[in-house]
């Protein structure tokens, strides 16, 4: 029984899989945060452009 327990304690394959899972989760969180920030900035930019185009259109009517 002690040999099985000792072999189980030396096995690190599960720990490696968990580490890769944590790294993938952190990368996903970083990508989502970056996309959210970029999306907000693009929305503000296009809203400003739309406002200026509408104002220009009203000038030439």
UniProtKB/TrEMBL annotation:
Alphabetized UniProt keyword annotations: Membrane, Transmembrane, Transmembrane helix
InterPro entries (UniProt xref): Flp_Fap
Pfam families: Flp_Fap
Residue ranges of the TM segments: 20-42
Source organism superkingdom: Bacteria
Name of this chain's protein: Pilus assembly protein Flp/PilA
